[in-house]
Amino acid sequence: MCFNEESIQFQTKVVERSGIGSEACMPISLHQLPPDGSKISDAREEVEFTLFRLVEDLLVKHNLDPKNIDILIANCSLFCPTPSISAMVINKFGFRSNVLSFNLSGMGCSAGLLSISLAKDLLKVHKNSLALVLSMETITPNGYSGNNKSMLLSNTLFRMGGAALLLSNKRQDKSTAKYVLQHLVRTNLGHDDQSYRSVFQEPDNDGLVGVALSLDLLRVASKALTLNVTTLGPLVLPYSEQILFAWSIILRKIWPPAKRKPTYVPDFKRAFKHFCIHAGGRAVIDAVENNLGLCEEEGEPSRMTLYRFGNTSSSSLWYELSYLEAKGRVKRGDQIWQIAFGSGFKCNSAVWKCVSDLDPAAENAWSDEIHLYPILVPEVLDH
């Protein structure tokens, strides 16, 4: 099966308006003509290329022996080989035989924060431990070659990328830690059929497997965010904002004319200094900015990440945090709100507090060209 002319024009139009620049990466197998992502060896090669480099860099940076790692968590939604991705990492680097290893799949773009949640719970039980979290999505085996428009969207948005994070509950690591996890709130709308099917992998009418993004996706994401915020708000907002929000809800119940006005949206800028919105696409970032009343600068890390790296799925939040660090904007005491969305449908929030004086010159994914950003991303990109 191959694309018809209408599908080619549709994908071209979406790419031009996606907000993704020309430097965002695709795996080697998809640079071939015609692209071929059918080989499992190519998918493994992409995992090795991405995660092995990340782990090597992290171990060198922190002067760690792989045997010092007590907990290993890897997440990759659409590629779940046997042995698992976490087993690939253990085999490559020679982790201990009693390392606690976990491999999360099928959890979508929110899996990065789900991995952090799992690490947090494990570190509560296992004292004096180090947890390594690896987040990525494979592009190689997941291209769609049919002509269903809802499945073609994934071809245009996703790009290569990954992140490696080290978490610790060791007393001696307090002095070198960059952030402390303050809160992690998870929301799951899997009980609702419309939400459950809003991001759905299935075969099309010709038997070609793809991931369909429904027209209800933004509405579902907005609902999930609202529920998530309802739980997160009392944990982080000052009492004045909580009172205004609660009064807005009560007023709508006791005075019918109040229903004609929108519910009061709390000012989360009074709780957070920085915002990292999942770079799932231009429309996703626009919707979250609008719902939370954020300004252009507050959405900048997400827009620049989308432009430079594309939708890297579960790792996009860490590219955004790296952007803020490279810009020198994160100061000791600042609180950062990470917002992730994923299939299921899920919305997850993580709140981090900076507990260190960060060096903006420290090497990260943005170091070589941070001086070029931010840039004005045109509505329609040249290609």
Q: What is the tally of helical segments?
A: 11
Oligomer: single chain
Approximate helicity band: 25-40%
| Poorly predicted segments | none
Tally of domains = 2
Share of β-strand residues: 15-25%
Largest sheet: 4 strands, mixed
- Alpha-carbon Rg, integer: 21 Å
User: Average pLDDT, to the nearest integer?
Assistant: 93
- CATH architecture label of the largest domain: 3-Layer(aba) Sandwich
Name the features.
383 residues, alpha/beta, Peroxisomal Thiolase, Chain A, domain 1, four-stranded mixed beta sheet, 11 helices
Can you describe what's shown?
There is one protein chain. The protein is α/β, with parallel strands linked by helices. The chain has two domains: 5-173, Peroxisomal Thiolase, Chain A, domain 1 (3-Layer(aba) Sandwich); 179-372, Thiolase/Chalcone synthase (Peroxisomal Thiolase, Chain A, domain 1), CATH 3.40.47.10. The chain has eleven helices and ten strands. The strands form three sheets. The protein has a four-stranded mixed β-sheet with strand order 2-1-3-4, with helices on both faces. Strands 5-10-9-8 form a four-stranded mixed β-sheet, sandwiched between helices. It has a two-stranded antiparallel ribbon with strand order 6-7. The protein is globular. The model has no long low-confidence stretch (mean pLDDT 93). It is an enzyme of class 2 (transferase). Its EC number is 2.3.1.199. One of its GO terms (molecular function) is fatty acid elongase activity.
